[in-house]
Design brief:
The chain is of the alpha+beta class. The chain contains eight helices and 13 strands. The strands form two sheets. Strands 1, 2, 3, 4, 5, 6, 7, 8 and 9 form a nine-stranded mixed β-sheet that branches. Strands 11-10-12-13 form a four-stranded mixed β-sheet. The longest helix is centred in the first third of the chain and has 14 residues, at 2-15. It starts with a helix and ends with a helix.
């Protein structure tokens, strides 16, 4: 059943990718709007340039950027299909007043489950806050194309960031609830992801992989079966980390397909995912080290390959 859900969603999302870029895809999956938008006066977090050579258009998955080095992820589309070249070249340049140091990096392509979609990612460094331009080019056999987008880089982020300790949220567990129906919108949930609270995971001297997601209501092209991917990682490395899914909505059993009934989980506010409407309904995945600090964070879908590399790093095996 889960395979059919994500496969069907992928076909619908892929056919509408170009339109999604035009209408600001980050707002597609918003669901119930938060009452406060802390960034409403800053304007859009990113904007795609006109289609480049080959009709290539970008979709930014990592919309929340700050100064320093961080993983940046994006999808590329062409008029015919999603671009799946093994790598892309990304050149950055600062567009604001003063000097900013640009760079040229290689972004690697990571295929998502069921081979429906995939995204590129690279570690990029922004040494100044303000507007930056990303020029992207790809070549794969007879196909070549380029695209560009402008991103807004902040001094700091409201959400938990690399090196810091996230809020010790006392999230619901199977023990506290007694049933999975009040814990997740997942159609076939993995009970192992609801055994430990976030607070206990942070306090324990053990790595943790924590995913905030709403499996039944994740609808934008930058989201995917993230909870399933975390479950797969757990099966590959059992008992070596705490694996936790935090449902975006606090009352999944009451929603019944009507998001007007939905209430955000308290942890969503504690981790500041409700600060802007384009963030809170996307998945956020965090890998914590043995000290409870953020080793890596991912906005939108992240592949098993990248998650595994982050987990092995905190296990001292990367």
């Amino acid at each position: 059943m889960k395979w059919k859900f994500w496969a069907g969603f992928g076909r619908r999302a892929l056919s509408g990718l170009a339109l999604a870029v035009t209408v600001a895809v980050v707002a597609v999956g918003c669901g119930v709007m938060p009452t406060e938008d802390a960034f409403s006066e800053e304007g859009p977090r990113w904007e795609a340039g006109p289609p480049g050579a080959g009709g290539v258009e970008p979709i930014l998955a990592t919309t929340l950027l700050r100064t320093g080095t961080q993983r940046v992820s994006f999808l590329l589309t062409s008029p015919d299909a999603l671009v799946k070249a093994p790598q892309a070249t990304v050149e950055t340049s600062f567009l604001g007043e003063g000097d900013g140091t640009g760079e040229t990096k290689t972004a690697r392509f990571h295929l998502w489950p069921y081979a429906i979609r995939g995204a590129y990612s690279a570690d990029l460094t922004f040494d100044r806050a303000g507007p930056w331009r990303l020029d992207i080019s790809v070549e794969d056999g007879d196909f070549s194309g380029d695209a560009s987008l402008t991103v807004q880089v902040a001094e700091a982020l409201p959400v938990p960031d690399l090196g810091g300790k996230p809020p010790a949220s006392v999230t619901k567990t199977l023990e506290s609830e007694g049933t999975l129906k009040t814990l997740t919108t997942d159609f076939s949930p993995d009970p192992d992801l609801y055994l430990t609270t976030v607070a206990d995971a942070i306090a324990e001297s053990k790595p943790a992989v924590i995913v905030f997601a709403t499996p039944a209501f994740c609808t934008s092209p930058t989201c995917g079966p993230q909870v399933d991917t975390v479950s797969e990682l757990k099966d590959a490395y059992p008992r070596q980390a705490n694996y936790i899914h935090v449902e975006i909505y606090d009352n999944p059993h009451e929603i019944q397909g009507d998001l007007e009934r939905a209430r955000l989980s308290p942890a969503v506010g504690e981790w500041k995912f409700d600060q802007a409407p384009e963030w809170f309904n996307e998945s956020w995945t965090y890998v914590l080290n043995t000290q409870g600090q953020v080793h890596q964070k991912y906005e939108g879908f992240v592949s098993r390959e990248e998650l595994e590399a982050a987990l092995l790093a905190v296990l001292g095996r990367g």
